[in-house]
Amino acid sequence: MEKHNEHKTLNHKSSKEKDQITNRLKRIEGQVRGIQNMVENDRYCVDILVQISAVQAAMKNVALHLLEDHAHHCVADAIKSGDGEQAISELLDVFKKFTKS
Hints:
Elements (H helix, E strand, L loop, with lengths): L14 H26 L4 H36 L3 H17 L1
């Protein structure tokens, strides 16, 4: 199946929105570095696992935000332009990937 190419960017996002996503990812990156330090410093396993869970939740929130935005903008635009079936199929494929994790 050919992917929907004309909607592959975040061009519809404002600079502020992109900055918010980038800042969230930078915070998550810092959390991951903190976990790495915890491992290197032989911290208690449960404490490390709690932090890993927090990172997973933060990543899931970023992904859900992007997924929602994709549905509202990219998929909606594709439907309006008559290419909705392919965009919906692609969206469903992404949902399947999320439910596997």
